[in-house]
Design goal:
With 104 residues, the chain is mainly alpha-helical. It is built from two helices and two strands; from the N terminus they run H-H-E-E. The protein folds into two domains: 30 residues; 73 residues, High potential iron-sulphur protein (High-Potential Iron-Sulfur Protein, Chain A, Irregular). A hairpin with a 5-residue loop joins strand 1 and strand 2. The chain is globular, with a radius of gyration of 19 Å. The chain binds iron/sulfur cluster. Specific class of high-redox-potential 4Fe-4S ferredoxins. Functions in anaerobic electron transport in most purple and in some other photosynthetic bacteria and in at least one genus (Paracoccus) of halophilic, denitrifying bacteria.
């Protein structure tokens, strides 16, 4: 009984590690959002926040970018990371879209 419980725990840890690894690999492999993507156009996404159409997106403030948005699924130092607004495709840390929400 003890052996089978230990075996179960060891194999559970193995499965959990494998899932964690494949999730990381999946995030890194996710395609990057292109500016001509229909969702990107609808949200005014730009790879470079300095290129945002400031006349159209008047709420944009210099200094806002994906890297400091609450939706960015990576570290601020990651050049690209998934964003749930784009079905977890990767957006640029220096990018911006109109769904921007300052990270607390
Ligand atoms: Fe970038 Fe935030 Fe827009 Fe996602 S929601 S693209 S992280 S500004």
């Amino acid at each position: 009984m003890k052996t089978s419980r230990r075996t179960f725990l060891i194999s559970s840890i193995g499965v959990a590690s494998t899932l964690a690894l494949s999730r990381t690999a999946f995030a890194a492999d996710a395609p990057k959002v292109e500016e001509n993507d229909p969702t990107a156009q609808a949200l005014g996404y730009k790879l470079d926040a300095s290129k945002v159409d400031k006349a159209k997106y008047t709420k944009f403030v210099a200094g806002q970018d994906c890297g400091n948005c609450s939706f960015y699924q990576g570290k601020a130092t990651d050049a690209f990371a998934p964003c749930p607004m784009f079905a977890n495709k990767q957006v640029a840390s220096k990018g911006w879209c109109s769904a921007y929400n300052k990270k607390a």
